[in-house]
From TrEMBL:
This is Fumarylacetoacetate hydrolase family protein. Gene3D superfamilies: Fumarylacetoacetase-like, C-terminal domain. It comes from the Bacteria. Transmembrane segments: none annotated. InterPro entries: FAH, Fumarylacetoacetase_C_sf. Belongs to the FAH family. Keywords: Hydrolase, Metal-binding. One of its GO terms (molecular function) is hydrolase activity. SUPFAM superfamilies: FAH.
C-alpha cells in the first residue's frame, strides 16, 4: 500500500461538509470519534462515545457543529499513518467510521448487477462459462431493466414470461419482485477503513469489488448521512449456491467502509446521495487496470424503500444500522485470458470514489493475511468505561 495523503481521502469540497471519522488513539488504547475540520482532527468522544450515539441525535450535523472537541492532530499525519505495514503504533491512525451499528447490505438493486448474479448462478461459480451464459441471459431478458419498477404489474408479467421460458432465477425474484434482498454483511465493529487491507477468502478464485453507497440510519429509521463501501464478493462461492452467501460475503476484512461519514446538512442531502456518481479503479501489480463508474440514480429501488424494508415493526436496531445499497456494476473485463473475466490478484489496489464522499482505498489480500479482528463490542465497552466515557 502506498502512503495515503489527504488528497486520497477528502471530498472535492474538502472539509466544507460535516465529516466524522474514527481514529485509534494509542494513549487510550482505544478508538475516538472525531470531527474532521479545516484546522485539524478533533476528538469529540467525551460528547459522543460512539458514532452510533452521534447518529441518534435529532440533528447529528448540528450537534457535532456545536461540539468543539480536543484537537489531536493534522489529518495528513493520521492518514499517512494508517496503512498497516507503514504504521507507527505509537501514533493515531484512521479506522472505519462505524461502530455499534449493524452492518446490513441490500442485494440485486441495480439491473446490471442483477444480470451478473443470474449469470453467476447459471455458471455454477465457473468463470469460463460466464461469457456464453451472459449472451444468452441478455438475449432473454435484455440489458436495460432500469425503468422496470420492482413489484409492478409490468415486472410480474415479465416474471411469468421468464418462468414460462425456464429462465426465472432467485436473483430476478429479489431484483424485480416486491421484496428486496437485505442481509447482514458482517459482524458489528468488524469493518476496515480506507488505507487498510481488504480480505478475500483464500479458497476463492473468482471474486470482485462491489463499489456501493453506504447509508447511516438511526434506530428510528432516519437516514443521517453516507459513506462509500466495498461489499467484497466471492462470485465462485455464491455462484455454486446462494446458501453460501455468508461464506461469500462475511470474511475477515471483507467489509470496507470509508473514508469518512458525511452527515446530511446544507452541503450534502439525501437528494444529493440519490444522484451520486461512484467510480471504481483497480490497479494490479501485474500492470492490469480496470476503470468503471455508474450513478445511484440508476438504482431500481429508492434508498428510502430499502431502509423501510430493513427497519420497522418487524425488525428493530437499537444502535442503528448502516446499509450498503447494492453494487452498481460487476467487473467483467478479461484479466488473464479471453472469456475468463475479472478476478482479484494479491496486492490489487482498489479505489472507490465519489466527488461528495472522497476516496475509499484498500489493498487486497487474503483474509488470513489481513490484520486479525480482535477489538469487538465487549472490548469497546470495557475501554470506554475505563476512560470514564460511559
Amino acid at each position: 500500500m502506498t502512503t495515503l495523503t489527504v488528497k486520497d481521502l477528502l471530498p472535492e469540497d474538502g472539509t466544507r461538509g460535516t465529516l466524522v471519522g474514527r481514529v485509534w488513539l494509542p494513549q487510550a488504547n482505544g478508538p475516538a470519534v472525531v470531527a474532521v475540520r479545516g484546522d485539524g482532527v478533533f476528538d469529540v468522544t467525551a460528547r459522543f462515545p460512539t458514532i452510533s450515539a452521534l447518529c441518534e441525535e435529532d440533528n447529528p450535523a448540528k450537534a457535532l457543529g456545536l461540539t468543539k472537541g480536543e484537537r489531536i492532530g493534522d489529518l495528513d499525519a493520521i492518514v499517512a499513518n494508517t496503512a498497516p505495514d507503514q504504521r507507527d503504533r505509537q501514533k493515531p491512525w484512521l479506522l472505519a467510521p462505524v461502530d455499534l451499528q449493524t452492518l446490513k447490505a441490500a442485494g440485486v438493486t441495480f439491473a446490471i448487477s442483477m444480470l451478473e448474479r443470474v449469470i453467476e448462478e447459471r455458471a455454477k461459480g465457473n468463470p469460463a462459462s460466464a461469457e456464453a451464459i451472459r449472451k444468452e441471459v441478455t438475449r432473454l431478458i435484455g440489458d436495460d431493466l432500469s425503468k422496470l419498477k420492482p413489484g409492478s404489474d409490468q415486472a410480474m408479467h415479465l416474471k411469468q414470461v421468464l418462468i414460462d421460458q425456464n429462465a426465472w432465477s432467485q436473483y430476478l425474484e429479489v431484483g424485480i419482485g416486491p421484496d428486496a434482498e437485505v442481509f447482514t454483511k458482517a459482524p458489528t465493529l468488524s469493518s476496515v477503513g480506507t488505507g487498510m487491507d481488504a480480505g478475500l477468502h483464500p479458497k476463492s478464485t473468482w471474486n470482485n469489488p462491489e463499489p456501493e453507497l453506504v447509508l447511516f440510519v438511526s434506530s428510528r429509521g432516519k437516514i443521517v448521512g453516507g459513506a462509500l463501501g466495498n461489499d467484497v464478493n466471492l462470485r465462485d462461492f455464491e455462484g455454486r449456491s446462494a446458501l453460501l452467501l455468508s461464506k461469500a460475503k462475511d470474511n475477515n476484512a471483507s467489509c470496507a467502509i470509508g473514508p469518512l461519514l458525511r452527515l446530511f446538512d446544507d452541503s450534502f442531502t439525501l437528494d444529493d446521495a440519490r444522484r451520486l456518481d461512484i467510480s471504481l479503479n483497480v490497479k494490479g501489480a501485474d500492470g492490469f487496470v480496470l476503470d468503471g463508474h455508474s450513478s445511484i440514480s440508476k438504482i431500481s429501488r429508492d434508498p428510502t424503500d430499502l431502509v423501510e424494508q430493513t427497519i420497522g415493526k418487524v425488525h428493530q436496531y437499537p444502535d442503528g444500522f448502516v446499509l450498503f445499497l447494492g453494487t452498481m456494476f460487476a467487473p467483467v473485463k478479461d484479466r488473464d485470458a479471453p472469456g475468463q473475466g475479472f478476478t482479484h490478484k494479491r496486492d490489487d489496489i482498489v479505489t472507490i470514489a465519489a466527488p461528495q464522499l472522497g476516496k475509499l482505498v484498500n489493498r487486497m489480500r487474503t483474509s488470513d493475511e489481513c490484520e486479525p479482528w480482535t477489538f469487538g463490542i465487549g472490548a469497546l465497552m470495557k475501554n470506554l468505561a475505563q476512560r470514564k466515557l460511559i
